């Protein structure tokens, strides 16, 4: 396992700047999650580290060595693709053996067998080892794909939305499993996802990308509690942060234009009156959609409350986040 | 109750399709059956009119195909004594003895060397070129691909005279190497285009995965791309072999002895004796290698289908 450092890395495809001056340190043993919408440069960042793309500018360092210009094989990275790319002409076992049998590793037979049975057990694919990889279900294919990365001991694991194609149950199981394996191996992981639960539960660090640039990097808690902009604030939190004009509530600083309220930053029972427009019971919690001077606000309430559409509810902010007109945090 | 189905053909459609298939099979198979049957007829039966459907089969055609024979006077035959083998007995009916092997075996071997040699070379070069065109940023790629295809836009025999002169200058006339190179040149455009299509279909993710798994570009090509391209390679190889195996015009023009293939040789068997059974026998045997090759590769045509392994 190793530390990975990106220093001023840029990559342009034609007219699009996919990655723009990204500098970031993935500490040894860290689980770093990259967040951002489609096209923010998450996958390109992974591919640059893997060596599948060459950066136009900047340096990439893995374990203290600059790897610009070296082949993917020389970098000793493992990658799980979003599109599960099992070799269709090989069995599950042959797929898992493939990286271990590479000319770089040349693992002895006994060691290969040991690691494969270990990984297969963890991912619960041990009964499918002799199946053709094309005979598997989508979930099984993706587990084999993850397994093909896990059988190695690479400098860093690069994972590009590895769980996005799985059903909810399997996803939550594998999420716990991946985190457990990562902690146990002390593995360095760079993980791309859209799923904020994955980000919050697995990450030791979160990097938020916007149009190719890294806008904030920190622990999940830092990102959640101290977002640098409305963009970052909107990436984490469910229901999403409410962004309202500052005039709605009194007491804002002079240059603030937007007030950001996460559901838990809305105090109920005092303050201004808002109208309940919709109530969603989720079992363990209740989402209340409110209307305040034409502004839609979503908050959470005790599931035992009996709110109904048309009720009025007094609300006031508690430790809100303030942003200026461009969306930057004040 | 009968209902209309979009996927299940009606009874009438099935019958119609069946009849079309049977008629087509009859039309294509008749000449083949005729040739095979003629190979086992005696020369008299072969030219009988109306044609004989029932006849006494004989291996005379095959014996004549593989041997040269000399007519002897009855006294000379007496001196030699009675025929020793079944094929001696066949030729003795015509007061002849076998004086040696014919050239059919050599010509057949030439066909094998040249046909399979040029097929191998076309596939080998074609696969590499198709991979490069499919995966790399080649300058003027479209123009080059068009140029490669354009070599097919005229009948190859249109350039027979220049090729004849070139071969004479280079000393390639009537050589195996010359014929292999010529057939490879003709087949390459087909193999590059066909194989590029097949390789384009193989997602690049597999190679990227292999690169990350610790393999070089060439190893990724060899271990991941090639096994998945077997379908395309097999069908392309069949096309290439059929062309070079059956090619007649260049073979007549450029070969006369050492490197002569079977197609220009078979008609010469007719000679003065109008030995149709021998011609038919030569033709029948000539069909076998391509048939065997196609049957051997048939299972590859169904294998290596990447269906379902990559989510699109």
From TrEMBL, chain A:
Topology term for the membrane: Peripheral membrane protein
Keyword terms: ATP-binding, Nucleotide-binding, Transport
Swiss-Prot/TrEMBL GO biological process terms: carbohydrate transport
PROSITE patterns linked to this entry: ABC_TRANSPORTER_1, ABC_TRANSPORTER_2
Record InterPro entries: AAA+_ATPase, ABC_transporter-like_ATP-bd, ABC_transporter-like_CS, ABC_transpr_MalK-like, ABC_transpr_MalK/UgpC-like, Mo/tungstate-bd_C_term_dom, NA-bd_OB-fold, P-loop_NTPase
Chief localisation class: membrane
Compartment(s): Cell inner membrane
GO MF entries: ABC-type transporter activity; ATP binding; ATP hydrolysis activity
GO annotations of cellular component type: ATP-binding cassette (ABC) transporter complex, substrate-binding subunit-containing
Domain ABC transporter: 4-236
Similarity section: Belongs to the ABC transporter superfamily.
Protein name: ABC transporter ATP-binding protein
UniProtKB/TrEMBL annotation, chain B:
Transmembrane portions of the chain: 15-37, 108-132, 144-167, 179-199, 219-243, 250-270, 276-297
Gene Ontology CC annotations of this record: plasma membrane
Membrane-related topology note: Multi-pass membrane protein
ABC transmembrane type-1 domain span: 108-297
PROSITE patterns recorded: ABC_TM1
Matching PANTHER family: ABC TRANSPORTER PERMEASE PROTEIN (PTHR32243:SF52), MALTOSE TRANSPORT SYSTEM PERMEASE-RELATED (PTHR32243)
Protein name (Swiss-Prot/TrEMBL): Carbohydrate ABC transporter permease
Organism (species): Pseudohoeflea suaedae
